[in-house]
Predict the structure of PHOP2 phosphatase.
Amino acid sequence: MKFLLVFDFDHTIVDENSDTWIVKCAPEKKIPNGLRKSYRPGHWTEYMGRVFVYLGDNGITEDEMKRTMTTIPFTAGMVDLLGFIGENKELFDCIIVSDSNTVFIDWILKAADFHKVFDEVFTNPAAFSSTGYLTVQNFHAHHCAKCPKNLCKRRVLKEFLDKQLERGVSYTQIVYIGDGENDLCPVMFLKKDDTAMPRRGYTLEKKISQLAQNLSPVECSVLVWSSAAEIMSHLKVLIKE
């Protein structure tokens, strides 16, 4: 009996958007209007690339960025939840599928000593160039019309499950924990024994209830959460069953 826990990162594990948190490093803690307005829907990663160039141009160093990122707050109850999962790793495989980037997630998890809780992190690859600029790339190319250009979370989840099956690992249940519009595509892939846990008051919860109102509800169970303590309660029930 093994459960797969799939976490989004921004507004789920951490209580902020890591990509907008980095702006605290910028001169006067803001970015110019022209740069802000250069964002085009579905092209967030390219936009963040331009933000990182702006930070680099203003002499913001890797150390400054790291110091800023490791002050980002975890969501209520999340530290306890991740501690609980870490103590029960024989029952839980745990992955992150996020539109953030490898550098930010790595810094934040390692600073809080949670990197061992997660088996894999699927997010946009990032690295510092030889000139000290942070660069970011799209996670993959895909053909899903529902998802942003750089990442289809359903495809990531499906490929992970296929790879696990090849290794002889299958899951009693998948629990998907997220908040955003880009979490809807993987949630629609879940089966009736699985559980989607959208964060209360965020876009994913609203999208799931719209589907139900349109009489095309998702197949899996839906449990809304406000604090990660509620996620922990659900996991404790699962492992008792």
Observations:
- The chain has a mean pLDDT of 95.
